[in-house]
Amino acid sequence: MTESAPLSLTLRSNAEALASPLPPLLAEAEHLASTVLVGDHGRRRAGLGDTFWQYRPAQDHDEVRSIDWRRSARSDDTFVQDKEWQIAQSVSLWVDQSASMSFTSSKELPSKAHRARTLALASAILLLRGGERVGLPGLPPRRGSAHVDRMAQLLSEDDAADYGAPDAREMAAHSRALFISDFLGDIDATEAALTAAADKGVQGAMLQVLDPTEEAFPFDGRTIFESMSGSLRHETLKAGDLKQRYLDRLAERKDRLSQLARLTGWQFHSHHTGDSAASALMWIFGALERRT
Amino acid sequence: MMTLGPLGFTAPWLLLGLIALPILWLILRAVPPAPIRRRFPGVALLLGLTDEDTQSDRTPWWLLLLRMLAVAAIIGGFAGPLLNPQTERTGTGPLLIVADGTWADARDWAARRDRIEALLTEAGRMGRTTALVALTDLPPEGPVFQGADATALQIPAFAPAAWEPQPTELADWSDGLEGSFDTFWLSDGLARDSRTALLAELESHGTVTVFQSPRQTLALRPAQFDGGDITISAVRTPIGPEIEVTVAAIGLDPAGIERQLETMPITFEAGSEIGEAVFDLPPELRNRITRFELSGQRSAGAVTLTDDALKRREVALIDGGAEREGLELLAPTHYLEQALSPVADLIDGTISDVLLANPDVIILADVATLAEGEAEDVQDWVEAGGLLLRFAGQRLASSDMGRAEEDPLMPVRLRAGGRAVGGAMSWGEPKALAEFDENSPFFGLSVPEEVTVSSQVVAQPDPTLAERVIAQLSDGTPLVTRKPLGEGQVVLFHVTANAEWSTLPLSGLFVQMLERLAVSTRPMAPTAEDLAGTTWVPEDVLDAYGRLERTDTLPGVTGEQLATAWPGPGMPPGLYAGEDRRIAVNLIGAETTLAPAAWPARIAIEGMAALREIDLKGWLLGGALLMLMVDILAALALSGKLRGPRADVAAGVLILLFALPQPGWTQQSNSAADDDFAIAATSQVILAHVLTGDPQVDEIAQAGLRGLSNTLFARTSIEPGAPMGVDIETDELAFFPFLYWPVTASQNIPSRDAYAKLNRYLRSGGMILFDTRDADLAGFGSASPEGRMLQALARPLDIPPIAPIPEDHVLTRTFYLLQDFPGRYNSRDIWVEAAPVDAELADGMPFRNLNDGVTPVVIGGNDWASAWAVDGLGNPLLPVGRGMAGERQREIANRFGVNLIMHVLTGNYKSDQVHVPALLERLGQ
């Protein structure tokens, strides 16, 4: 399922780019979303909904038309079908649009931003298909597939800043949230947003998208490292010597994020652009599904 | 021009640039590589990290060294280096080039010619006139100096001679030299007495330069005959460490082809000049030897010819067959054996056996009559040049042989009985021998007084008697008579060969007489007196390279010359034929020794090898360029820029630079291919067909087996893999249970090895289906070219008796019940291994009890492969028959294929069904 994804992805995205005003991102996201089959979020109790939950003996207050005659015919009692209670959730997405996300180490790999947007949009499509309301910063949560176009447009915008940080102000209380970023910028801003969200009772998931080179640091020799916008720079004479210390710092950053997530009841996962997008999507769904 | 050993520089001043290298070292070392800029989002994490090593990154020493070497190579390259720079020889005026041109030069004559050519080219550049002279082939007049180009024209015809310079001629020639000229003398490296005089003479005309290269020269002395062995010795110069060379005895084999009859090593001890080898050969082989050669030495000195001197006469001794055991001294042949065995090879046996060996002499001691056929054979042999020597005795005396008329194998008629003188019952004294007559071959031998004759056979006084007597008694009675017969002769001693009738065999005269009769003579080296007045014609002549060439255009030489003179232009070494024998003239005498030529210190000696000037500039500059390339890669790698596609390119370049051709590659791939073949053939059941070389037939065979494999796969538990074509010459057959062999008229008969392999295959249980594919045209047999080819193919095969397939053959029921075995044609002529004659019909069974053995061959002509053949999609490839009947025939053909493979793989198991009644009966108990 995932093996053939990149090829058909490009094929289809090209076709879609010609055929529709939707950005290719949307097509890709839809394709990615189609790899996951989801239903409505069952509440695991009887209530309003479409899905069968259980049979129960008919009570006085039950209307006659709600009696399940097929089941009742098998015994002397009359039974009523209970449906599972289903409610819609609102999910706020935040995708880092900053310059650092536009990094890619090779032509074969998608940029981090592309992967983050694809994943966000695919989750949004899936959530919408599941009947949830999905929102972005600057776009209140709504239902309906028409909403996807709007989100796709918003997600395609770039931010000039080097590193981005999530914003918890617009989130509704007790909603769910999904943060996708490389989380390489100032950790304090992220921490503040996460704490604010947790204060509002918002639960969710943080997905860190990294390029493989950011994990491997395969550099050597005299090098000047620059941030994507060029505002930050660091010169070294022997890049190879820095490798271990850089990796330590990266591990420390991940450790900090997962610790934060633990404290606030969020989920944290690190994803590499070299890996398959579908696995990240599965994780997102696992994370959002949990304790819902 | 500056020279350092073999190196010279045309622009040595540029080498001063090498002084700058240390400075360059310091500069390069101080400058670190330029930084790279990288966009990297993770820089936020790097902020604040400092380098552990605050010093600037230095260029590593090996990279510096590489760069230094590159720069040094460039400097050296531009300084114009030359390997073996040729120093210009200066000189003016005429130039005489003298070469010894002896046999010792022959081994590396090509090098000498190259050297002469180089010298002439050089002389031509300087505008000198030149002349070229070989000392063994002196021009009648003095040297003619001409342009170097003109002299160079002589080079192709300039060849060494198989002899040494003749001192007298050399002196004459050098006396006639005039004018002043320089001399280049190409020496053969051997000491020679004539050198000093010639050198002095040449030096009086100008400077002399000698070209000579030190090397080992070997020569072979004439073979010495010593008892039964041949001793051959070789000499060498200079005397060096221990070496071993091989000497080969060469002669005609019985088929008349010249070949090495025997080889022996000759070992020169360290410090020893002479090495020896001893050949101990059977006489037959020894008589065949025509010459000895030192293997690998191409010169006339390394060859020594043998003449008749090496041959021992073969003498057949036949006595009267008396079985007088224990009386050895009385045996008729005892004294003959004693006299002849040291000098001749004796042959025992019956007349008919002995004649096959074609001896030189047959001695009949007291043999009266020969069998009818034998007498004629002996006569033929004598007429062809044999010497028949007879001795008288009791038997001869009492026989009627040669009484009434002369026997062809007797020189005279004999009177009955013979006579006895001086015995107890007779008067008179035993007779002594008379002095030998002038015409007798024994003339000159002194007659000892003690030789007496007491009995003898007596010749009839015939008109021819007088001329046939070659020895007589003091009273004039013939003692030895002789008559010519054809080219040979018959000699009769009128006494016995033992001491019974006379004391002659006890005396030294007997041996001398035998020698004179050429019974026992081994030809001795002829003396000058022997040779005086004779003329000898060269038959085979040696050239300087040691090749023996037949000649018939050279003039003969006189015997005196032959005995005394050394080989020279008038008498090249070789074989010289006289009237009745041949004499070898060898270059190296029995006492010849070799010594290296010594030259006075004032003479400049140069090596023989003409060194070529090699310009190293290109190599050095190329090397520098290569090093700079490597430097680029190394610099990239060091600064971390060598990753991604660049690294691939760099790796490619490095592989191209350093990958050397692997000599073992082909062999490895060969054995790997063998392994692949074996694995492919054995991992599944594979049906195989023999590749005939006819692509169409091979293709159909392949398709046919593919179809059969498909059928088997679909219908039976046999699941064959894709069929293979096998080359019976190269491929291993043991892997295949079954071979389909379509016979074409044009295919090659397999080699012996292939037949060995095929027979091994058949013996170890393989089956071959021969298909002549001609059943439509011919019945089985030799009526078609394929049939004849099949016969030719199958003749060396180890095939049991075959018979037309019987109706109850197990092939009819191994899987399907069949009575016909059609392919594309439907002929009943199928042949399989014949059933044993004792096969009997079991009770109540439809077939005979034939439960042993799978037939190793099935032979037919029904073109089964065409019926089985399918294309890649499984559709039949070729039409069979017509309509539905044809399809039915194809089906039966497929069934035959199934039965056949079942038969191959399960053997006779279906035959065992004949035992079922017996088994059931036993189970019932």
TrEMBL record, chain A:
InterPro entries per the UniProt record, alphabetical: DUF58
Protein name: DUF58 domain-containing protein
DUF58 domain sequence ranges: 54-227
Lineage of producing organism: Bacteria, Pseudomonadati, Pseudomonadota, Alphaproteobacteria, Rhodobacterales
Pfam family, one: DUF58
Source species: Flavimaricola marinus
TrEMBL record, chain B:
Domain of life: Bacteria
InterPro entries, alphabetized: Aerotolerance_reg_N, Class_I_gatase-like, Double_TM_dom, DUF4159
Domain (DUF4159) ranges: 687-905
Entries under Pfam families matching the protein: BatA (PF07584), DUF4159 (PF13709)
Stored SUPFAM superfamilies: Class I glutamine amidotransferase-like
Domain Aerotolerance regulator N-terminal residue range list: 7-81
Recorded coiled-coil stretches: none
Annotated keywords: Membrane, Transmembrane, Transmembrane helix
TM spans (from-to): 12-31, 61-83
Record Gene3D superfamilies: 3.40.50.880, Domain of unknown function DUF4159
Name the record gives this protein: LytTR family transcriptional regulator
Organism this protein belongs to: Flavimaricola marinus
